[in-house]
Specification:
The complex is a heterodimer of chains A (307) and B (319).
Chain A (H helix, E strand, L loop, with lengths): L2 H10 L4 H11 L2 H10 L1 H23 L31 H37 L1 H15 L3 H12 L3 H27 L3 H8 L4 H37 L11 H8 L8 H29 L7
Helix pairs in contact in A: 1-10, 2-10, 4-5, 4-12, 5-6, 5-8, 5-10, 6-8, 7-8, 8-10, 9-10, 10-11, 10-12, 11-12
Chain B lengths: L1 H27 L5 H8 L8 H11 L5 H13 L13 H36 L4 H15 L2 H16 L14 H35 L2 H8 L4 H39 L4 H11 L2 H29 L1 H5 L1
The chains are: A mainly alpha (307), B mainly alpha (319).
Chain lengths: 307, 319
């Protein structure tokens, strides 16, 4: 499930921080965005697709043909037709509208949880890597403990202890992403820490906090951005799985996962449109996030460019 | 080697202690206590009065100090006693012993399927780089890495029911009792999981094989006249194997989570199904023990993966 996570972990380990800052400095400018689109067609298409997903989420009330919770008992489990382009579910709710509103859950959960996981991971990894000694040892043990749980199981445990709801899904998915982000930023710090310019800053009397903030954090941004993009896909996965299993976003709020979970009650003869369309929504979003992640990694670190 | 094994085992012990503490705290401290969690949910159950709640807490041992409860739990787990389901009063150990083998079968079959598909496909695609086969592989890998295994499962059910009028057996049998129904039951989830994992393995095999193909010793092997196939199998394959095993090891976390979701999709009575049931019923004794079990399994698998490095790569064994 979190298959994509370790693909990143594997390919990200060797980074050349110094080159990256230069690239990042340009990368943040508008020209950098243009260069990124020019450097990778697939990455550009993926980015556009994700923007479209975001727009659908924002404009769902305008775009959706029906309110997502409106039941139409005259047309329950109707196959796709002109009135209901993607059919209806067992309560006669319009599948297309529900997928569009489900985009909101997906967007909120993935962005917020990735933001949570990446920022906590970044802060934690940097302080642990830079301060070293006992603090690093203790925090490494803590990360190991978090990593001893399979991602989905950890998220499930957190869901049951925090109670179901959108915010808890964000926390559960976000916490399950902290270990990887911590590992990655810590490994970058360990290599940057020994560079001459950090030593120079130290000799000039800069405090550890200033060194961490001014000299080390920028080096970690690029790898963390790549991890975050790929984690976006993982977050969509985890949210979908949680909701599918009935421990994520509680119904009636539509999410792609709980739409698929709703099929389970009739699992021996599910209506095909209720299986296919929410799944395609998940697949295309995750695929876009993964492809964008690959493209970003190639952009920031050309040495790993896929052949 | 032995020293390495011992050191790894020593590290695993505090990790697992931390894991158990985290589980315990998640189940007790955040929502008050399990009883508050259950009665607070109020899912059709009546609201307990203060005295009833007090006596229930007493009989469950929840009135004791938290450290005592924790040590008590650890002690019984260490003795192999997993207690009783809060909901059905069944012994958890028996449930685990009955359902565990089914989940293990699914996981092992899934890994086998992913290797059988992923490694050859990845190797071929690296050797015939930029051919139509390679392009097809890359598209397939991108696609299968983006779809959740439980969705593959749902689509498989849809297709088998609609097209072949076949549905998975409704009764659960162990492999040694009735191999045919057992295999019919586990094959679906195993294939659904295996396909997703195969994509990961193929991607990793391809990229490491490409690295290996660029090595000097491969050129030497070619130059001394070895046949293309011999080079691929003896030089490329073996050297590309290590990262692939690492990948498989890391992917195990996803696989264990994946069994939970696919078992639910197929309605297979494995451990994952039990966990989902326990979560929905707020069966906290069950949740606590099952989550710990998953973490232990994951840690042990990672340990085995580490040990297998030495077996495959003599350089690590010596160093």
């Amino acid at each position: 499930m979190s298959a994509d996570r370790m693909a990143v972990a594997g390919s990200l380990a060797p980074v050349e921080p110094i080159q990256q800052t230069a690239r990042l400095g340009q990368g943040l400018a508008i020209g950098g965005v243009r260069r990124f689109f020019a450097s990778s067609t697939i990455g550009g298409v993926a980015a556009v697709l994700l923007v479209v997903v975001g727009l659908v989420a924002l404009l769902a009330p305008l775009l959706a043909p029906y309110p997502p919770l409106e039941a139409d008992y005259a047309a329950t489990q109707a196959p796709p037709s002109v009135q209901h382009l993607l059919g209806t579910d067992h309560l006669g709710r319009d599948t297309l509208s529900r997928i569009m509103f489900g985009t909101r859950v997906t967007l909120v959960v993935s962005l917020a949880s990735v933001g949570l996981g990446a920022s906590v991971g970044l802060l934690w990894g940097i302080t642990a890597g830079y301060l070293g000694h006992r603090f690093d040892m203790v925090s490494q043990r803590l990360v190991e403990i978090l990593m001893a749980f399979p991602t989905l199981i950890l998220a499930m445990l957190l869901m049951v202890s925090l109670g179901a709801g959108l915010v808890t899904v964000v926390v559960a998915v976000g916490v399950s992403q902290i270990p990887l982000a911590t590992r990655i930023s810590r490994s970058v710090v360990l290599s940057v820490k020994e560079t001459a310019y950090v030593e120079a800053a130290r000799c000039a009397g800069a405090t550890p906090w200033r060194i961490m903030g001014r000299h080390i954090t920028p080096q970690c941004i690029a790898p963390i951005m790549v991890v975050a993009t790929v984690n976006l896909g993982a977050a969509v996965f985890t949210e979908a799985a949680l909701s599918f299993l009935g421990v994520g976003v509680p119904p009636p709020t539509p999410s792609w996962g709980n739409m698929l979970g709703g099929v389970l009650a009739q699992s021996f003869n599910p209506p095909w449109w209720l299986v296919v369309f929410p799944g395609l929504a998940i697949a295309s979003t995750v695929m876009a996030a993964n492809l964008l992640g690959d493209a970003l990694r190639d952009f920031f670190d050309p040495r790993t460019r896929r052949r | 080697m032995l020293q390495y094994l011992l050191r790894r085992l020593l590290i695993a012990v505090p990790t697992l202690l931390g894991v158990s503490l985290l589980i315990f705290l998640a189940m007790r401290v955040i929502p008050g206590d399990p009883l508050a969690m259950i009665s607070g949910e109020g899912q059709g159950t009546r609201v307990l009065s203060e005295e009833e709640r007090e006596s229930a807490r007493q009989s469950l041992g929840l009135d004791r100090p938290l450290p005592v409860q924790y040590l008590d739990w650890l002690g019984s787990v260490a003795r192999g006693e997993l207690g009783y389901s809060f909901w059905t009063k069944e012994p958890i150990r028996e449930q685990v012993l009955r359902r565990g083998p089914i989940s293990a079968e699914i996981a092992i079959l899934a890994v086998a399927i992913s290797w059988l598909i992923g490694v050859p496909v990845g190797l071929l695609s690296a050797v015939r780089r930029n051919s139509w086969l390679d392009n097809l592989t890359r598209v397939g890998v991108t696609f299968f890495m983006a779809i959740p295994s439980f969705w593959i499962g749902l689509v498989m059910i849809l297709v088998t029911v609609r097209v072949f009028y076949w549905r998975p057996p409704l009764v659960a049998d162990q492999l040694w009792e009735n191999p045919s129904t057992n295999l019919q039951m586990v094959l679906g989830p195993a294939v659904a999981l295996g396909l997703g994992l195969a994509a990961v393995i193929a991607r990793m095999t391809r990229s490491t094989a490409l690295d290996v193909l660029a090595e000097d010793y491969v050129r030497t092997a070619r130059a001394k006249g070895l046949a293309g196939r011999a080079v691929t199998l003896q030089h490329v394959f073996r050297n590309a194997l290590l990262p692939v095993i690492t990948t498989s090891g890391v992917a195990m976390g996803g696989l264990l989570g994946g069994t939970v979701a696919t078992e639910t999709a197929f309605g297979v009575p494995g451990l994952g199904n039990l966990l989902v049931q326990a979560l929905n019923r707020r069966d906290w004794t069950m949740i606590q023990n099952l989550v710990l079990l998953y973490a232990v399994i994951f840690v042990v698998i990672n340990l085995l993966v580490d040990l297998s490095y030495g077996w495959i790569d003599p350089r690590i064994r010596v160093g």
